[in-house]
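Q: What would this chain look like folded?
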Amino acid sequence: MKRYDQIIFLSTTNTLLGPIAEVIYRKNSSDWMPKVISRGLVVLFEEPIHPKCNQLLTQNGFPMTAHGQSKQLVQEDIGENSLVITMTFSEKVKFTEDFNTLENVYTLGEFVGVDTDIIDPSGAEDDKYQECFEELALRINKLIHKIEKLYWDEENS
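A: My prediction, written as structure tokens:
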């Protein structure tokens, strides 16, 4: 695995899962960790984040709020050492088709060794949003641990 200087959390519309992943990562990672952004694959125009986003963050002890508007992923966002993390396999496929690369792109599950996608709970009952949040937080923390270990092992080799 290579050393990354940026992580891009990529979701379809960048209104719920990507922004939550970004905030969890920012709060739980060290200052020396790669910088992070979240972007969407299909953002026709900037729109507000999902109403549940900040509610979930606040309820779960994350006083930070997610960014206010969705943002489209553009080629300029992707650096040579960017790690692209999608929430689902279908988003990974769309990314590889749109940006013509398989390098440094994983589903969150793939990266942390879990076989399932993160499923967007939009339109579901409140308990499904909370379950999704908890699973997303668990996986983001595994991602942070994996990257910290990579950097630690590299610095102490």
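The chain has a mean pLDDT of 88.
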